[in-house]
Structure prediction request, 134 residues.
Amino acid sequence: MNSFEVFVRNYEVDIMLVSMLKSKLHRAKVTDTKLHYAGSIAIDPDLMEAVGMLPYEAVEIADVTNGNRLKTYAVEAQRGSKDVIIIGAAAHLVKKDDVIIIFSFADVDIEEAKTHKPSVVALDEENNIIKKIC
Prediction:
């Protein structure tokens, strides 16, 4: 047995992590796409902060308009702009004016998962927050 295996045996802890919804922007409208840029999704920081989403956090996007799904990361757009801009190759899958859902997830231990509550807001056609769902 090598030293790493000894360490693992001596400090073995059974931890199960569960991937849980952390943040969700429900029914955001894509305000622009920029195909020839490094890929990501730019989101108004006011919207990101409303659900606790961080710059460079991994996000999943579900396009309500066409059914496409993809994974990328969030960057900040101009504050107060209400912008949701698809950047890079994802612009082949999501178009301007598409309605999308933006999700982020967190891995939490099983006990925390039992009481975990995500932060979810619904948006109108102009990306204004109309309702805090949870």
